[in-house]
């Protein structure tokens, strides 16, 4: 058994027989991909990586598997799947996920291209593990997938704890060990014991509070919008058939590739990001200001560049001067894991009055961003209000920057 010192969980035990997977290029690449993309532009300590998170998720997955009394082979399957669950991430983590979805038609959980053939497949077969089972664990289709891909999964437990630790934000408090000890496995899946309700509520509260403070902080969203635009401009010049190759790079390789791009726009954006010369908010508005019909249309089109070009044409500026950020509407948190209460299986919503409040809070946290260069801020703000049919805020509610 190999022992690794982790700043969040203490000593993490790694079975000797899975060390070849730990040392594989696909997993080692995660050392060079930041967990939170560009959040270090806001929180200087947020330089932790997907590799660290994968170790933490693996550690918690093993603990939960043992707590559930799984067979040794199922414990191995769950542990290995947790280790590999983030190998499909592109550079800067979620910052390049939209490129993967738009140009490759997949997301980071689709790891078949890494696992079903090549070195990882050989190592899994040597462990008597079916590579297809690992893929199903990661994309949520396996009967045991809820451990790493569910409502109260170890992936979420680790990243909330880890992201709070490295950002210094005091909202990611999760009693992971309480949740693990309060979970049973039944023929209906994972079941939370009644004594785990408070721990489950704390996880949901942490998720809700971390969204605006870290995951959807406006600076991070601006930087992510800039990198998406830079990558798009680069691929437009170098060829969209190179998308897969680009997204297999780590952060450093991706940065170097864009910095020598044939696109002037791409090279400028990547240089500005390096110097922290960011676009500014012209608009940063919630659902209460965006007319719902307009909002649904913009989200359904999934074409932020078209919206940006519309604003630029109306404002009379170059279409590289505006970036539009339209996040998906937050889906309601619904813990499908039932609560065992006097031999009845009830949903957590039936027992926790917090659920509806937290879901309303998540909706109120949604923001659409219109970002531009500092010198164009005023004209873009005025134009965006007009062409996007957005209600102006009152003076007392106006966002001060």
From TrEMBL:
PANTHER family: DEOXYNUCLEOSIDE TRIPHOSPHATE TRIPHOSPHOHYDROLASE, DEOXYNUCLEOSIDE TRIPHOSPHATE TRIPHOSPHOHYDROLASE SAMHD1. InterPro entries: dGTPase-like, HD/PDEase_dom, HD_assoc_2, HD_domain. The lineage of its organism: Archaea, Methanobacteriati, Methanobacteriota, Stenosarchaea group, Methanomicrobia. Residues 46-169 form the HD/PDEase domain. One of its GO terms (biological process) is dGTP catabolic process. Gene3D superfamilies: Hypothetical protein af1432 (1.10.3210.10). One of its GO terms (molecular function) is dGTPase activity. This is HD domain-containing protein. It comes from the Archaea.
């Amino acid at each position: 058994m190999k022992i690794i010192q982790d700043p969040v969980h203490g000593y993490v035990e790694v079975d000797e027989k899975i060390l070849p997977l730990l040392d594989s290029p696909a997993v080692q690449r995660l050392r060079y991909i930041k967990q939170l993309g560009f959040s270090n532009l806001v929180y200087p300590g947020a330089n932790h990586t997907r590799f660290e998170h994968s170790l933490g998720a693996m550690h918690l997955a093993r603990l939960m598997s043992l707590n559930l009394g799984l067979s040794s082979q199922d414990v191995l399957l769950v542990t290995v799947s947790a280790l590999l669950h983030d190998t499909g991430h592109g550079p800067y983590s979620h910052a390049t996920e939209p490129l993967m979805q738009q140009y490759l038609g997949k997301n980071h959980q689709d790891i078949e291209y890494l696992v079903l053939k090549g070195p990882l497949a050989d190592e899994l077969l040597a462990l008597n593990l079916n590579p297809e089972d690992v893929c199903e664990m990661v994309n949520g289709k396996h009967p045991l997938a809820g451990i790493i891909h569910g409502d109260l999964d170890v992936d979420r437990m680790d990243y909330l704890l880890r992201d709070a630790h490295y950002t210094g934000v005091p909202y990611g408090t999760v009693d992971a060990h309480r949740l693990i000890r309060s979970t049973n496995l039944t023929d209906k899946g994972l079941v939370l014991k009644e004594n785990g309700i408070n721990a489950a509520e704390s996880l949901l509260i942490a998720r809700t509070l971390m969204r605006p403070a870290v995951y959807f902080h406006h600076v991070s969203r601006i930087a992510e919008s800039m990198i998406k635009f830079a990558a798009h401009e680069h691929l437009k010049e170098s060829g969209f058939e190179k998308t897969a190759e680009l997204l297999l790079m780590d952060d450093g390789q991706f940065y170097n590739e864009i910095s020598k791009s044939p696109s002037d726009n791409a090279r400028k954006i990547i240089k500005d990001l390096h110097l922290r010369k960011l676009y500014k908010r012209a608009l940063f508005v919630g659902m209460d200001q965006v007319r719902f019909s307009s909002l649904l249309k913009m989200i359904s089109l999934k074409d932020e560049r078209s919206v940006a070009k519309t604003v630029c044409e109306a404002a009379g500026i170059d279409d590289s001067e505006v970036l539009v950020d339209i996040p998906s509407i937050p889906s309601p948190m619904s813990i499908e894991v039932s609560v065992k209460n006097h031999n009845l299986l009830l949903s957590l919503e039936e027992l926790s009055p917090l659920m509806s409040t937290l879901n309303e809070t998540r909706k109120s946290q949604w923001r659409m961003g219109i970002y531009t260069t500092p010198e164009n801020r005023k004209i873009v703000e005025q134009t965006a209000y007009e062409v996007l049919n957005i209600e102006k805020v009152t003076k007392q509610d106006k966002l001060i920057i």
